[in-house]
UniProtKB/TrEMBL annotation:
Gene Ontology CC terms, in alphabetical order: bacterial nucleoid; cytoplasm
Primary location group: cytoplasm
Protein name as annotated: Recombination-associated protein RdgC
InterPro entries, alphabetized: RdgC
Keyword set, alphabetical order: Cytoplasm, DNA recombination
One biological process term in Gene Ontology: regulation of DNA recombination
An annotated Gene Ontology molecular function: double-stranded DNA binding
Compartments in which it is found: Cytoplasm, Nucleoid
Phylogenetic classification of the source organism: Bacteria, Pseudomonadati, Pseudomonadota, Gammaproteobacteria, Lysobacterales
Function comment: May be involved in recombination.
Family under the similarity heading: Belongs to the RdgC family.
C-alpha cells in the first residue's frame, strides 16, 4: 500500500461533513460483473483485497477507497476477420456484392455476437480522502483516470464538488527559479531528473535523467529560454518524486527513513501491514501536501456563507 503517483483535488469543510455516510453510499455503487453485451462496468471494490466486503478503510481522518473496473477486450482485428468470413459466406451463397450500409450492419452483428466471449480486463485504482484537510488523493498520474475516480465518488454520493488543485503561484516559474538559483525551500533538495521545454509552440524539449542538475550544462538550457516542466525532488530525505507543472507527483517513492519506521509487528497479518503502511503513508503525505500548499498556493474551497 504505497501510492506511486499523486493527482490531488480539494474539497470544502462542508463536503468533509457529508463523508460520514461514505460507507453506505459506496455500498450502493459496488462493482458488478460485466453483462454479456456490456463493454465495461465501474464501481467500488474493497481496498482490503479480493473477497473482502468492506469498501472504506479508515485510519483517523483518512479514508482509503478503491475504484474497480471491468473492460472487455475485443480487438478490431478479431472483429474484422469474423466480418470477412461472414461476408464471404454471403457472397458464396447468394452471389451478390455487399453494400456499405449492409456491411456496417453485419459488423454490428458480428460485434454483438463476439462480445459475450470477449476477455475481461479488471483494474483497480486507489484513492484516499483526507477529511481534516480537504484533500482527495488519487494514485494516478493520468488526469483522466483521476477525474474518473472523482466522478465515481460523485455518482455514489450524489454530490462531491471536489476540484483539481489549482496553484496560485505558477509551478513552472517557481521550479525554474529553484533550478537556476539552487535556492530551494527548506527540506527540499534536487533529484537527478528534469524536463526542460521552450514554452513556444513546437519548442525544443530537453529531458535529463540520472544527471546532476546543478551543473552549468543544465543551467545553460534555462538561460536560452527553456523552463522547467518537470523536476525531480526529495522531501526531507523521506520522499522522492518528480513534480510536474500540472502539480502532479510522478515516480513517488518512500525512502529508507520512512520504510525503517514500519514495525516488525506490522507483518503479522495482511490487515496489520495495511494498517501500518496506510497510516504511515498518509501522515507523510499530509506533511508533503501541506508544504505544496505553502509553496504554490493550493487553496481549499470555502463554503458560501
Amino acid at each position: 500500500m504505497w501510492f506511486r503517483n499523486l493527482t490531488v483535488f480539494r474539497f470544502s469543510e462542508k463536503v468533509s461533513a457529508s463523508l460520514k455516510n461514505l460507507d453506505e453510499s459506496l455500498d450502493q455503487a459496488r462493482l458488478r460483473p460485466c453483462g454479456p453485451i456490456e463493454l465495461s462496468t465501474r464501481g467500488f471494490v474493497s481496498p482490503l483485497g479480493r473477497n473482502e466486503e468492506k469498501l472504506v478503510y479508515r485510519v483517523g481522518e483518512f479514508a482509503l477507497i478503491t475504484v474497480g473496473s471491468e473492460d472487455k477486450l475485443l480487438p478490431s482485428t478479431v472483429v474484422n476477420e469474423a466480418l470477412a468470413v461472414k461476408i464471404e459466406a454471403i457472397i458464396e451463397k447468394e452471389g451478390r456484392r455487399i453494400g456499405a450500409r449492409e456491411r456496417k450492419r453485419l459488423k454490428e452483428e458480428v460485434f454483438t455476437d463476439l462480445l459475450p466471449r470477449a476477455f475481461i480486463r479488471p483494474s483497480r485504482l486507489h484513492a484516499y480522502l483526507d477529511s481534516k484537510n480537504g484533500w482527495f488523493v488519487v494514485d494516478s498520474a493520468s488526469r483522466k483516470q483521476a477525474e474518473d475516480a472523482v466522478t465515481q465518488v460523485r455518482e455514489a454520493l450524489g454530490s462531491f464538488p471536489a476540484i483539481p488543485a489549482s496553484p496560485e503561484e505558477a509551478p513552472r516559474v517557481l521550479m525554474t527559479d529553484w533550478l537556476i538559483s539552487g535556492k530551494l525551500p527548506p527540506g527540499l533538495t534536487l533529484g537527478d531528473e528534469c524536463e526542460l521545454r521552450d514554452p513556444a509552440e513546437s519548442g525544443a524539449i530537453v529531458r535529463c535523467r540520472r544527471q546532476d542538475l546543478e551543473t552549468d550544462e543544465v543551467r545553460e538550457h534555462i538561460k536560452t529560454g527553456k523552463q522547467v516542466f518537470q523536476l525531480g525532488l526529495t522531501f526531507e530525505d523521506r520522499i522522492s518524486f518528480v513534480l510536474g507543472e500540472d502539480v502532479v507527483l510522478r515516480k513517488l517513492r518512500f525512502l529508507d527513513q520512512v520504510l525503517d519506521e514500519l514495525g516488525e509487528d506490522s507483518r503479522e497479518s495482511a490487515a496489520a501491514e495495511l494498517d501500518a503502511r496506510f497510516a504511515l503513508m498518509t501522515l507523510e503525505l499530509e506533511r508533503l501536501l501541506a508544504r505544496l500548499q505553502e509553496w504554490f498556493g493550493l487553496p481549499r474551497p470555502i463554503d458560501p456563507a
